């Protein structure tokens, strides 16, 4: 298996013919420091040594310096090459890698070495696989349970579109959090997420909770792509109708000139307004800020979400 795309491979061949969208200068509230800590270097060495991919690197996450200083890495399984070509994403696209049969063991080893209390496992889309990678997800979850039984596990899955039985297989492996991102409002799917379908993603989240009511479900969207406030509020309502517990909202940042342009930079006050509205709609947990990403502060947020559900159940029992 190739752990990452070869240097001479065009990272986004499907975007090469597109005209450039100049990358806008970020406002002061989004700028972050370059990763230079010893802990960052140590985490990077561990990932390379075990031939593991991280979405932190592949998706050019702005929070990598902060998270890796705390040794909080988000593992990206099923290879480093995606079969989709989303307009917002910096993960390489093209012919995917062969599955690494040792990956579940290596991920579990890294979780133990880093001493993670909470781990986030995501992946590329694998439309080429019969089950979309569902069995591989289940194997990773089970291996972590065997080697680090005290670690809570959050998965961020593909949509498993047209992969019969995939959601059921992953849900039965009993992660603590089943996350799948809607990414944007339905009107923008044809240009921003052309290989996906809004209601396929929404139904996946609903199905996961239906199968295992004890699971926490989670989803996220980006703003700054041209959506309206009314569309964002409708997405919130759709997610609550699917009984989703946790919502994340973050600023879209353009990875390269070939990716979708930033329509605007949403202000911190607007993010706080979204958070307030979402809490009022009944989400157990909301993270809404310019730098919010699915796995940013995921462990701390999981603990708060679990406490919120416990309090809600206790209140219901007392009434």
UniProtKB/TrEMBL annotation:
<dbReference type="InterPro" id="IPR006638">
    <property type="entry name" value="Elp3/MiaA/NifB-like_rSAM"/>
</dbReference>
<dbReference type="GO" id="GO:0016992">
    <property type="term" value="F:lipoate synthase activity"/>
</dbReference>
<dbReference type="GO" id="GO:0009249">
    <property type="term" value="P:protein lipoylation"/>
</dbReference>
<dbReference type="InterPro" id="IPR007197">
    <property type="entry name" value="rSAM"/>
</dbReference>
<feature type="binding site">
    <location>
        <position position="67"/>
    </location>
    <ligand>
        <name>[4Fe-4S] cluster 1</name>
    </ligand>
</feature>
<comment type="similarity">
    <text>Belongs to the radical SAM superfamily. Lipoyl synthase family.</text>
</comment>
<feature type="region of interest" description="Disordered">
    <location>
        <begin position="1"/>
        <end position="25"/>
    </location>
</feature>
<protein>
    <recommendedName>
        <fullName>Lipoyl synthase</fullName>
        <ecNumber>2.8.1.8</ecNumber>
    </recommendedName>
</protein>
<dbReference type="InterPro" id="IPR058240">
    <property type="entry name" value="rSAM_sf"/>
</dbReference>
<dbReference type="Pfam" id="PF16881">
    <property type="entry name" value="LIAS_N"/>
</dbReference>
<dbReference type="GO" id="GO:0051539">
    <property type="term" value="F:4 iron, 4 sulfur cluster binding"/>
</dbReference>
<dbReference type="InterPro" id="IPR031691">
    <property type="entry name" value="LIAS_N"/>
</dbReference>
<feature type="binding site">
    <location>
        <position position="86"/>
    </location>
    <ligand>
        <name>[4Fe-4S] cluster 2</name>
    </ligand>
</feature>
<keyword id="KW-0004">4Fe-4S</keyword>
<feature type="compositionally biased region" description="Basic and acidic residues">
    <location>
        <begin position="8"/>
        <end position="25"/>
    </location>
</feature>
<feature type="binding site">
    <location>
        <position position="295"/>
    </location>
    <ligand>
        <name>[4Fe-4S] cluster 1</name>
    </ligand>
</feature>
<dbReference type="GO" id="GO:0005737">
    <property type="term" value="C:cytoplasm"/>
</dbReference>
<keyword id="KW-0479">Metal-binding</keyword>
<keyword id="KW-0949">S-adenosyl-L-methionine</keyword>
<keyword id="KW-0808">Transferase</keyword>
<keyword id="KW-0963">Cytoplasm</keyword>
<feature type="binding site">
    <location>
        <position position="89"/>
    </location>
    <ligand>
        <name>[4Fe-4S] cluster 2</name>
    </ligand>
</feature>
<dbReference type="GO" id="GO:0046872">
    <property type="term" value="F:metal ion binding"/>
</dbReference>
<feature type="binding site">
    <location>
        <position position="82"/>
    </location>
    <ligand>
        <name>[4Fe-4S] cluster 2</name>
    </ligand>
</feature>
<feature type="binding site">
    <location>
        <position position="61"/>
    </location>
    <ligand>
        <name>[4Fe-4S] cluster 1</name>
    </ligand>
</feature>
<feature type="domain" description="Radical SAM core">
    <location>
        <begin position="68"/>
        <end position="284"/>
    </location>
</feature>
<dbReference type="InterPro" id="IPR013785">
    <property type="entry name" value="Aldolase_TIM"/>
</dbReference>
<dbReference type="InterPro" id="IPR003698">
    <property type="entry name" value="Lipoyl_synth"/>
</dbReference>
<keyword id="KW-0411">Iron-sulfur</keyword>
<keyword id="KW-0408">Iron</keyword>
<dbReference type="Pfam" id="PF04055">
    <property type="entry name" value="Radical_SAM"/>
</dbReference>
<feature type="binding site">
    <location>
        <position position="56"/>
    </location>
    <ligand>
        <name>[4Fe-4S] cluster 1</name>
    </ligand>
</feature>
<comment type="pathway">
    <text>Protein modification; protein lipoylation via endogenous pathway; protein N(6)-(lipoyl)lysine from octanoyl-[acyl-carrier-protein]: step 2/2.</text>
</comment>
């Amino acid at each position: 298996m190739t752990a990452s795309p070869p240097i001479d491979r065009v990272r986004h061949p499907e975007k090469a013919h597109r005209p450039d969208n100049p990358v806008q200068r970020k406002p002061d509230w989004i700028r972050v420091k370059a990763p230079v800590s010893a802990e960052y270097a140590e985490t990077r060495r561990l990932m390379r040594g075990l031939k593991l991919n991280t979405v932190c690197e592949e998706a050019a996450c702005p929070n990598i310096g902060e998270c890796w200083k705390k040794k909080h890495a988000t593992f990206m399984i099923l290879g480093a090459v995606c079969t989709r070509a989303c307009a917002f994403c910096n993960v390489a696209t093209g012919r995917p890698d062969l599955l690494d049969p040792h990956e579940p063991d290596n991920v579990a080893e890294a979780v133990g070495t880093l001493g993670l209390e909470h781990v986030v496992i995501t992946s590329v889309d694998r439309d080429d696989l019969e089950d979309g990678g569902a069995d591989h997800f289940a194997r990773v979850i089970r291996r972590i349970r065997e080697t680090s039984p005290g670690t809570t596990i959050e998965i961020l899955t593909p949509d498993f579109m047209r992969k019969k039985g995939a959601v059921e297989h992953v849900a039965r492996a009993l992660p603590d959090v089943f996350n799948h991102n809607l990414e944007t409002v339905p009107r923008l799917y044809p240009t921003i997420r052309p290989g996906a379908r809004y209601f396929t993603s929404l139904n996946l989240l609903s199905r996961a909770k239906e199968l295992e009511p004890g699971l926490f479900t989670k989803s996220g969207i980006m703003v700054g792509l041209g959506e309206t406030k009314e569309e964002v509020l409708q997405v919130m309502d759709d997610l609550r109708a699917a009984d989703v517990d946790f919502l994340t909202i973050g600023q879209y940042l353009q990875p390269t000139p070939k990716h979708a342009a930033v329509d605007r930079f949403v202000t911190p006050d607007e993010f706080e307004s979204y958070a307030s509205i979402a809490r009022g709609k009944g989400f157990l947990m909301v993270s809404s800020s310019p730098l919010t990403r699915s796995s940013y502060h995921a462990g701390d947020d999981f603990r708060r979400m679990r406490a919120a559900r416990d309090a809600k159940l206790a209140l219901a029992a007392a009434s």
